[in-house]
Every structure is written in C-alpha cells, then in structure tokens.
Amino acid sequence: MNDQMNTTALALLAADPDQPTLADFGKDPLWISIIKALFIFVFLMLGVLFGVWTERKLISRMQHRYGPNRAGKFGLLQSVADGIKMGLKEDILPRTVDKVVYVLAPILIAVPAFLSFSIIPFGPIVSMFGVRTPLQLTDLPVAVLVVLAMASIGVYGVVLAGWGSRSPYAVLGGLRSTAQVISYEIAMGLSFVAVFLFAGTLSTSEIVAKQASGGTWQVGGLDVPLPSWYAILLIPSFLIYVITMLGETNRVPFDLPEGEGELVGGFHTEYSSSLKFAMFMLAEYVNIFTVSGLCITLFLGGWRAPWPISLWDGANSGWWPMLWFFAKLVLLFAFFVWVRASLPRIRYDQLMAFGWKILIPLNLAWILLVATVRATRIQGADRTLVLVIAAVVVVGCLAIYFRFDTVNQRRREARAAEAQAEFEQLRAEPTAGGFPVPALDLPHYHGVNGRKEVPSGTN
C-alpha cells in the first residue's frame, strides 16, 4: 500500500512540480503553519461578516428591497455593528439551565466548524517568505473523513444546547437536528464513495490532482474522452451532495432544527442575543463555507482554473489559483442564498422520507453502477461475469421498486375512494343554502343588533 502511494506521488510530482502530494505535508516550519492557521481563521471570520451582508443584500434585491444601506458605504459595516452588539450585550443565564452544558454547547458547535477547513486546499505549492509550501494547512490519507467527523461532533453541540436549556422547544429542536444530520450525513458520505472509486484516494490534494485532466474510456475500440471535473463525470453524486449540503447546514428548505414558525427558535431558544448566540450563527456560516470548499475540492476541480481560463499556461501556478477557488466559493454561497429566497420549508416527514427513501437508495444504486464500471476496467477482470452480476442486481432493484410502487398505488386509490365517498355523503346531506358547509349561525344571520337576516347561499 505504501509503495502504491509513493508511486502515485512521484507520478503527480513529475506531471506538475507545483501540485502538492501527501509527501509535501508535515515539513513546514512552525511559523509557516501558524501563518496558514491565522489566514484560515481571519478568512472565515471576514467571510462570515461579508457573507451575512451579501445574503441580506441578495435576498433584498430578489424581494425588491434595498437591504442594509445605513451603516457604512452600501451598508458594509452593518454586519460589523451587529457583531459588536452581540458581543457587548448582556449575557442572560436562565435559572433552570444546566450551566456547564449550556456554556459548552456553543463551543462544541463553533470549534469543529473551523477545524474542518484545515484540509481544504487553496492552491498549489508556492514560495512563502522563501519557503516552498502548499496552500493548505494539512492533508491526510483520510482527509475527507475528517470533515464528516467534525460535522458529527458539531451535532453534539446542537443536542447539548437543547438538552442543557431545559426547554421543551429547545429539546425538540435538538432531537430534530440529530435525526436530520444522521439521515443526510449518510447520504453525504455515500456521495463521496464514487469520487473515492475514481480518484483512488481520500486525500483532498490528490483528488484535486486527479481532476487536472480527463481520462479516456475505450468503447468498441474507440477512446472516448472523459471530462476532468467529477461534477460532470459523476453528476448523480454531485447533485446528491448539493442537496445534502443544505441538509447538513440546516438551511432552507431543510432548516427544521430551528423552525422559527414552529419551535420559536429551535435548539437555541433559551440563548439570548449575546456572544453565545453569535457563536451559533458563526458556526452555521462557517459550515456553509466548509461544505462549499469540499464541494469545490471533490467535484469542481479544486483550485484549478475552469475552462477557458485553463488554456492560459500560468493559470494553475503561483497565487492565481486562490482567485479561482474564491470565485467558485462565492458562486456556491450565492446558490445557498438563491435557494433560501426561492424555496419554502418542507414538512419534517417529507424531510426524513426524502433522505431515507430517495437519496440513500439512489446513492447505493449509483455506487453499484460506478463500481461495476471500475471493475470492468481492471486488468484481468472477467467483464462478462461482472456485467451479469450487475444486471441481476439492477433487475432485482427494479422489481423491488415496482413492487413497492404497486402497493403505494393501491393505497392512493383506496384513499381517493374514501375521499370520494365522504364527498358524496356530504353532498347528499341537506345543508343551509344547499352547499356542503356547516350552518352559518352568526348573529347577523338572525337579525341581531338590527341587522337583516340573510340566508346562507343567497345574494
């Protein structure tokens, strides 16, 4: 296994000397690592400030409003003012809360959100103060799994925030978040599997390198060129991941853990608008940047320039790739805002059914197809046997689907028949005015207070 990884690293290094590999990490001086960590922290903090302003401005324009336009030029200082206000407001501690859990919950949400961004690559190897270093804080052989692990830890913060508040609304919001994240984390993890099968690695820097150029597929003696971005080559995985991004970050239409119209405020109902509440808001926006950065890394070519910018020889060297990465990040953030302004919140039963009954089965079927295609390309593999097994499994899946579809159709027909029978019964019963509605016995129908009685259903 180590020999195979070393061979892959040498091949990538020979193709592009500025392309980082796993062997390039762990060699930076301490002060370089501190600079990278500070850069990520400052970038995320400034991203939250300008992200809130951008979201308010975009939604305002979509709803024909101005948005923030008082504090600073174009209202740019409005987010700064809001952050200072939340930091200086009185921190009210309810009497009945579990103080340790109540204080610990915001920290458990915010800290993993920042740590997850450490494995996102911003660019290639550059010279920083005379030291050649990759524009990435760290990388691991299982770097993508670190994001899933950090997301799981963040869920503990949500659950503990609800439990420590000792409020039924907060507890219900925490339970909703647990069920939602479990459902959509499974779908998100499965959407990564196809990428792992094609890239042959879980390292984020090497996944970006695999998308540097498209491969070929031999069909009938012809070499068919394949796209380089996995968003095109593995479009079902990409679309499923985009949906799970919304579910993981509790954004519309999947913001059920908060549900202001149903739960007052969700798991943070008992948190006043102080520094603790600000940490919840900070973690939500940082998680948006994290899942967007992971989407760019796994599906959109990472920091590499899109076509036709990639035709320029220097597009993928030096500091230019940071610009392409940030441009992709801004577009994905705008997608989050567009979805929030366009779609309503769905019901909780629809949320769970969509995750368990649609996304996860589709993911499993797609992984089976991708694994079959990869197996047929292995040297010495019995392609006929692989294709027969895949065909049997596909036929079995279709049979199960049509079986359940038939059962659901019978249920729908039975419900329609019951509704028709109820309607016929109501229509047959005599009602005031001849309409199938309850009698209208309001006072003005009987001449109370000098008003004339008007029978229902007449002009």
Strand order of the largest sheet: 1-2
Give the class from helix and strand content and strand pairing: mainly alpha
What count of helical segments does DSSP give?
14
Shape: globular
In terms of DSSP E residues, the strand content is under 5%
Uncertain ranges = 1-6
The N- to C-terminal Cα distance equals 86 Å
- Largest β sheet strand count, sense and barrel closure: 2 strands, antiparallel
What is the succession of H and E elements?
Answer: HHHHEEHHHEEHHHHHHH
User: What is the β-strand count?
Assistant: 4
Helical percent range? Answer: 55-70%
Mean pLDDT: 81
Question: What is the C-alpha radius of gyration, as a whole number of Å?
Answer: 28 Å
Would you kindly provide a brief summary of this structure?
With 459 residues, the protein is mainly alpha-helical.
Describe the structure.
The chain has 459 residues and is mostly helical. Helices cover 62% and strands 3% of the residues. The protein contains 14 helices and four strands. A hairpin with a 2-residue loop joins strand 1 and strand 2 (131-134). Helix 9 packs antiparallel against helix 11 and helix 11 (275-299) crosses helix 12 (320-342). The radius of gyration is 28 Å and the shape is globular. The N and C termini lie far apart (86 Å). 32% of the residues are buried. The model is unreliable at 1-6 (pLDDT under 50). It comes from Sphaerisporangium rufum.
